[in-house]
Amino acid sequence: MLLKMEEIKAQLRLDEDFTDEDSLLELMGQAVQSRTENFLNRRLYATAADLPEDDPDGLVMPDEIKLALLLLVTHFYENRSTVTEVEKLELPMSFNWLVGPYRYIPL
């Protein structure tokens, strides 16, 4: 998982010593990374040293994508159900706006 637990907890405004939901947060962090990589058609890496030569479409994770991952974790943490009483609309500066420019679309 590219997101660190400290980053997730800071985003959610949880104390670092609050560990009751660490397994859930880990699951969310892995899920948003996997879903983002699927959307981008690219694998994400923490550093250039981690990027293997045999992955020409691989991407060292820029800050915009890290922010998008954190936004998704926040969304899943605050909305633990697929049903809502209020219609929710995507904000212009959300996930798609942040990661869209990095998407690889093979032709």
Structure description:
With 107 residues, the chain is mainly alpha-helical. The protein has a single domain, classed as Phage gp6-like head-tail connector protein (Hypothetical protein yqbg), CATH 1.10.3230. The protein is 45% helix and 4% strand. It has helices at 5-12, 22-40, 63-78, 95-99; strands at residues 44-45, 59-60. The chain has a two-stranded parallel sheet.
Q: Separation of termini?
A: 29 Å
Number of domains: 1
Structural class of the secondary elements? mainly alpha
Number of E-state strands = 2
- CATH homologous superfamily classification: Phage gp6-like head-tail connector protein
Instruction: Write the element-wise H/E pattern from the N-terminal end onward.
Output: HHEEHH
**Total number of helices:** 4
Approximately how much beta-strand content do the residues carry?
A: under 5%
CATH class category name: Mainly Alpha
Protein name: Phage gp6-like head-tail connector protein
InterPro entries: Phage_gp6-like_head-tail (IPR021146), Phage_HK97_gp6-like (IPR006450)
Pfam families: Phage_connect_1 (PF05135)
Organism: Mixta tenebrionis
